[in-house]
Amino acid sequence: MATLQQSHNLTGQSPGLSRAGHTAAAVVLGSILVLGFLGNFLVLLVFSRFPGLRTPVGLLLINISISDMLVCLFGTPLSFAASLRGRWLTGTYGCRWYGFCNALFGAAQKFQRLPSTYRVAGRRGHPTCPERRCNLS
């Protein structure tokens, strides 16, 4: 079994970023937190107000918006707080939770984009197909 090396960020020492670097990262992460949450909330609000948008592609967009909102709620605040302090506030547990949330919700976003990519690829066809419209099904 492989052993994990301790990060300097978990032990409280931060040789990588200066105090100004941590502050700049906190400003960017705070902006992502606020704008990401509000933007995705507006997307969900628009889809709830206009039932005609609830098409299959619209439902994929709703799912992507929800998973992005979950990243903004569960992952970004931990990173934001860690940037303010210059270290992870809850030690290895917070670092692992942050990684888990971003991996889980990030993977969900990627898998939700697959059907739309498949659909677009079916319309364009493959460059080696003589008809330029290959049936992918």
List keywords for this structure.
137 residues, mainly alpha, 0% strand, elongated
The share of residues in helices is over 70%
Unreliable residue runs: 1-5
Largest sheet: none
Percentage of residues in strands: under 5%
Global geometry: elongated
Span from first to last CA?
A: 43 Å
Mean pLDDT equals: 77
H/E topology pattern: HHHHH
Count of beta strands: 0
What class, by secondary structure content? Answer: mainly alpha
Per DSSP, the total helix count is: 5
What's the gist of this structure?
The protein is mostly helical and 137 residues long.
Report on this structure.
By secondary structure, this protein is mainly α. It has one domain. The protein has 5 helices and no strands. It has helices spanning 8-11, 19-49, 56-74, 76-85, 91-124. The protein starts with 7 loop residues before the first helix and ends in a 13-residue tail after the last helix.
